[in-house]
Design goal:
The mean pLDDT is 94. Strands 3-2-1-4-5-6-7-8 form an eight-stranded mixed beta sheet, sandwiched between helices. By secondary structure, it is of the alpha/beta class. The protein has two domains: 164 residues, NAD(P)-binding Rossmann-like Domain (Rossmann fold), CATH 3.40.50.720; 96 residues, ProC C-terminal domain-like fold. Helices cover 54% and strands 14% of the residues. α8 crosses α9.
């Protein structure tokens, strides 16, 4: 199998590098990006750098489209003439529907819509997948198997993609904002920035592992930290009075509304 990638920025490059290690033995790789320097380390690992998106589309069996959403239509119209029914086109462009991909590609090959999140860059991603009707179940399972080496994979109805993007695709921004606030609080309390950041990173990682391995409600885990007349309950009371849960909920719903609007625009 030849796996090709058009667009090798942060996400495209990370997916391609991850697949280098998870693809079946004997798989080959090719790519095109407008900034050749981004491909240098991947070339050293055996990725063939080609001169155009069209060349990648000609050679690839599985074609990863990792350009920005605004560029998808133009790229697809450029490569449509070399797509065939034997190829599979996988897009990670947010807000670009399967119907839009089919329209601009000429509807000649099976399509996959994939929504990753940025922790995929470190092999800890969460992925949503939606498949076109002309993609076989066997092909779908092969793609899911490839990506499971890069993180957790969910097969969703396409109607759920805006919600997934708002909750998980955008989720790292919410988490990093919280982490930044905690680091700032640590510095305010007298810790160095470096120490504060290391503490917060370990805190978040530990809580994630604890939530995964402890089969109780998250509210119970929160309550377990709050001793009567203790300092934690005072902090939690402030979060509750300021509407912390409601703020997070509103952020996700706002992102979801924008995602739905983007799909209508595509």
């Amino acid at each position: 199998m030849m796996i090709g990638c058009i667009g090798c920025g942060n996400m495209g490059g990370a997916l391609l590098e991850g697949l280098l290690h998870s693809a079946p033995q004997g798989s080959r790789f090719c790519a095109y990006t407008r900034t050749p320097s981004r491909l240098a380390h991947l070339e050293a690992q055996g990725v063939l750098r080609l001169k155009s998106a069209r060349e990648v589309a000609e050679q690839a069996d599985l074609l990863l489209l990792c350009v920005k959403p605004a560029q998808v239509s133009a790229v697809l119209k450029d490569i449509a003439g070399v797509l065939t029914a034997e190829k599979v086109l996988l897009s990670v462009a947010a807000g670009v529907s399967l119907a839009s991909l089919a329209r601009d590609s000429g509807a000649v090959c099976p399509l996959v819509r994939c929504m990753p999140d940025t922790p995929a860059l470190v092999g800890k991603g969460v992925f949503a997948f939606a498949f076109s009707e002309n993609l076989s179940r066997e092909q779908a399972e092969e793609i899911l198997t490839l990506f499971r080496a890069l993180g957790l994979c969910f097969e969703l109805a396409e109607s759920q993609f805006a919600a997934f993007s708002a909750l998980i695709g955008a989720g790292p921004a919410y988490i990093f904002a919280m982490m930044q606030a905690l680091v700032q609080a640590g510095v305010t309390l007298g810790f160095s920035h470096d120490s504060s950041r290391k503490m917060v990173q370990a805190l978040v990682e530990g809580c994630a592992v604890m939530a995964e391995k402890t089969p109780v409600h998250l509210a119970r885990l929160k309550d377990n930290v709050c001793s009567p007349h203790g300092l934690t309950i005072e902090g939690v009371n402030v979060l509750d009075r300021r509407g912390f849960s409601g703020i997070v909920l509103d952020a996700v719903l706002a992102a979801n509304a924008r995602g739905l609007a983007m799909e209508k625009e595509s």
